[in-house]
Amino acid sequence: MKVTDHIKQAKGKTLFSFEIVPPQKGQNIQELYDNINPLMEFKPPFIDVTTSREEFVYIPKEKGLLEQKITRMRPGTVGICASLKYKYNVDAIPHVLCGGFTKEETEYLLVDCHYLGLDNVMALRGDAMKHEKYFEPTAGGHQYARELVMQISDLNKGKYLHEIMETLYKPDFCIGVAGYPEKHMESPSLDADLRRLKEKIDAGADYVVTQMFFDNQKFFEFVDKARSMGITVPIIPGIKPMAIKRHLQVLPQVFKLDLPEALISEVEKCTNNDQVRQVGIEWSIAQSKELVAKGVPVVHFYSMGKSDNIKAIAKEVF
């Protein structure tokens, strides 16, 4: 079922969802199931599964030399989605990236998703590779998420890259895209970033999931500005519980977001990460309750492979 249909069927009730990261290759999927199992009691209608970019690895050779190779350390997004769909009877949503994929590879991936009965995809540009200062598109791939949305939207119409297929079995993907309450790190302003978001919606996107934020007021202002620009699709807030003290430095650095002074103060008082984790849980509970009270369609949690803190939050909210 489409994310937008889940939201319509909820008739104003806020839904619970979360995002998971595929295990590194060589690991067992059971650990992933073990982290998902405790969250299923909250009846998530859908679960997002991230896709990792390719990266360089260096293989030792003779005489101390290193051979540079490109690999993906966390493959299997579509396979995991199929597994989750049929194990838990839940809609699983693969992240589809511009970075690291040609247009042809993207089409093959989308065809696989259609065959597997996956009704939703999350269309993202993706991050720059570690050695790149700025994002560089893959040769033969898309530079912007808007272009990726257009390809998926075209496929929904039966328009493939090199021909239009006469078929009764067109895919009908529900397309999600990312939004940034504190603007994308590469955008010159929030208004400019919202114009890019509007372009993605106009290209065919059906809903928005935001990057994590810790100040609800910034989310509410983001939604108000989006609505004033004519963006009418559902906007889903993304929440990440703070878990370790180092997040005070890492999260602003990596995601270019601001942390509220009240949260900073509480975390700085902590003497160990167990205390930080509890602060993160309590802060996210308060965030989530306010978001639910304001009538958001879904509260979406970034689990990062752990579920105990997400479960503690969900028990108080859902």
How would you describe this protein?
The chain has 318 residues and is of the alpha/beta class. The protein contains 11 helices and 10 strands. The protein has one domain (3-317): Alpha-Beta Barrel (TIM Barrel), CATH 3.20.20.220. Strand 3 and strand 4 form a beta hairpin. It is globular. An 8-stranded parallel barrel has the order 1-2-5-6-7-8-9-10, surrounded by 6 helices.
TL;DR of this structure?
By secondary structure, the protein is α/β, with parallel strands linked by helices. The protein has helices at residues 3-10, 30-36, 77-88, 103-115, 145-156, 190-203, 216-228, 247-255, 261-269, 273-293, 308-317, and strands at 15-20, 46-49, 55-60, 66-71, 91-97, 120-124, 174-179, 207-212, 235-239, 298-302.
How would the blueprint of this fold be written?
Layout: H1 3-10, E1 15-20, H2 30-36, E2 46-49, E3 55-60, E4 66-71, H3 77-88, E5 91-97, H4 103-115, E6 120-124, H5 145-156, E7 174-179, H6 190-203, E8 207-212, H7 216-228, E9 235-239, H8 247-255, H9 261-269, H10 273-293, E10 298-302, H11 308-317
Helix pairs in contact: 5-6, 10-11
CATH structural fold name: TIM Barrel
What characteristic shape results from the CA principal axes?
globular
Q: What is the name of the CATH architecture?
A: Alpha-Beta Barrel
Strands side by side in the biggest sheet: 1-2-5-6-7-8-9-10
| Domain module count | 1
Number of strands: 10
CATH class: Alpha Beta
Q: Can you give the helix content as a percent range? A: 40-55%
> SSE string, helix = H, strand = E?
HEHEEEHEHEHEHEHEHHHEH
Class from helix and strand fractions: alpha/beta
Strand content: 15-25%
Main sheet properties = 8 strands, parallel, barrel
Number of helices: 11
